Amino acid sequence: MLDGFNTSEKEVAVGVEVKKTQAITRTVTDEKVSRVRVTVGVKALYEQNSQGDTNAATVTLQIFINDTPYSVTFNGKYSSQYLKHIEITELPPVPFTLRVERVEADSKSQRLQNGTLWASYTEIIDTQFAYPNTALVGIMFDSEYFNAIPQRNYEIRGIKLRVPSNYDPVTRQYDGLWDGTFKIAWSDNPAWVLLDILTNKRYGLGQRLGEIHMDKWALYNVAQYCDQLVPDGFGNKEPRFTCNAWLTEQKSAYELINDICSIFRAIPVWTGTELTVIQDRPADPVWIYTNANVVNGEFTRQYSALKSRHNAVHVEYLDKSDFYQKKIEYVSDDELIRKHGLNVKKVTAFGCTSRGQAYRTGRWILETEKRERETITFRVGREGLMHIPGDIFEVADNHYAGTDIGGRVFKSEKTAQEWYEKKRRFK
């Protein structure tokens, strides 16, 4: 409930001149209407005599609710439009008609100005309204201080969502081991924003996916990486990744999931039993492949084209220090620009309101394209089924190195002690 705002009003414009020979009629059909406010008036109201003096004049209108009349009299001297509001509380059952009639005859003289009009009527509903799942603000002020409805700006945190029970979203600290349970709190950690979108049954995928099919433990590791403090470029520290997005319209679930994952440099992956995320972050290799454990001992190499490797990035973001206006953060590799010429890439950093985060996004794109220029393709046996996208492994290619740098042990008749002694001799 919102105290002080216990009515709902809908103004319906009429804007028709009321003449003696033609009454104006409108119909009200909403059964929730409690009161009606009728706005009528005069275009001007005065009478000039033969000496040129301007005097007051009188004109009367009648407002009918079905057949019940309400009289409105205008008496005075007005050189421009003048309106009155008549509120009628005793209403018949809907549908009922509103009718406005003029009592006096229409003026045919330029000396008498008493044209009448029906400007509008307002349907008023008296009740206490509930606004579930809504952030609502009500402001009342005296209209004499403003010539129009003033523009208002609000800085909001956003929706509350589920976060780990051992997590303080304000300090971004995790207390001890997590038992897998959640609590409700506000957080801008993109990992928990993603979980909310995936599991919420009102506006997310909760009805289809269900929490049991989401790898919350992988998200927990991702969230800790997002919360680590890094330099913001201005002498302070800030979280590595945050999400501050305003979703105002329906969007493809697949597109939205990928947008949120892009904040923390990850991709969503369905493992066959659950949905998890694979994040691009420092990690150790999980396996080594040599010519001995790939099909035909072959590694095929391909290299990215020079035109696909950008040396400058325009990152679009919403600047929280400037009322969340759209800004462009320019990130460049000046050495590559001098060497190959300017090659710009334009991206939009989803949910980004920090200039530092926008810069890190651009720098990551440049470094990724600069360093990851080679693609190695090979085929393996059943052991390859243990990998998931994002796994890091090493390649020991004898042909590429020009010498034997890897292989497979088929059989050994030496004891562990003999291998140890041999190793000592080679040292």
Automatic annotation (TrEMBL):
Protein name according to UniProt = Uncharacterized protein
Which branch of life, at top level? Bacteria
Residue ranges of the Tip attachment protein J HDII-ins2 domain?
Answer: 8-127
Which InterPro entries does the protein's record reference?
Answer: GpJ_HDII-ins2 (IPR055385), J_dom (IPR032876), Viral_Tip_Attach_Protein (IPR053171)
Q: Could you tell me which residue ranges the Tip attachment protein J domain spans?
A: 248-403
What is a single Pfam family found in this protein's UniProt entry? FNIII-A_GpJ
